[in-house]
Amino acid sequence: MKKRLTYVSPLQLGIVLAVLYGVISLIIVPFLILGAIFGHAGFGAVFAIFFPVIYAAVGFIGGVITAFVYNLVAKWTGGVEFVTSDTP
Predict the structure, then answer these.
(1) What is the C-alpha to C-alpha distance for residues 16 and 14, in angstroms, rounded to an integer?
(2) Cα(51)–Cα(29) distance, rounded to whole angstroms?
(3) Distance between CA 4 and CA 82 in Å, rounded?
(4) What's the pTM?
(5) Phi, then psi, of 2 in degrees rounded to 5
(6) Residue 26: in which H helix or E strand, if any?
(7) What are the sequence ranges of the domains in the chain?
(8) Among residues 21, 9, 7, which one has the least CA distance to residue 60?
């Protein structure tokens, strides 16, 4: 069955992307810390501490902007069409 995605809640998408980017950054941070330790870069270690917060904030802002722009474009084009199926 075909369906159309004609609206995305900007705040909800922002929250989802903030959490998603926050989790991804927690995977990246250990590598930043290792690089700071072996590269003797004190700034790198400080940056690694704030990286998850910064990355999540950027994800939130990006998600809100993306949803807003998508909703404008969806009004003109009808939105993204996708197919769903029922599973037992």
Answers:
(1) 6
(2) 7
(3) 6
(4) 0.76
(5) -85, 140
(6) helix 10-39
(7) 2-83
(8) 21
Token couple for 16: 């989802």
Phi-psi region of 86 (alpha: psi -120 to 50; beta: other; left: phi over 0): beta
Judge whether residue 33 has pLDDT over 90. Answer: no
- Structure tokens belonging to residue 45: 């270690």
Of 14-18, 31-35, 51-55, the range with the lowest mean pLDDT is 31-35
- Residue 15 in contact with residue 64, Cβ under 8 Å? no
Structure tokens at 28: 């990246």
Residue 7 CB contacts under 8 Å (≥ 6 apart), including other chains: 71, 74, 79
